[in-house]
Amino acid sequence: MIYHIAFEYLPDTRIEVHDRFKQTGAPPPGEVTMVGRWHAAEGNRGWLICEANDTAPVARWLQEWTDLISFEVTPVLTDEQFLDVIG
Question: Considering the entire predicted model, what is its pTM?
Answer without folding.
Answer: 0.91
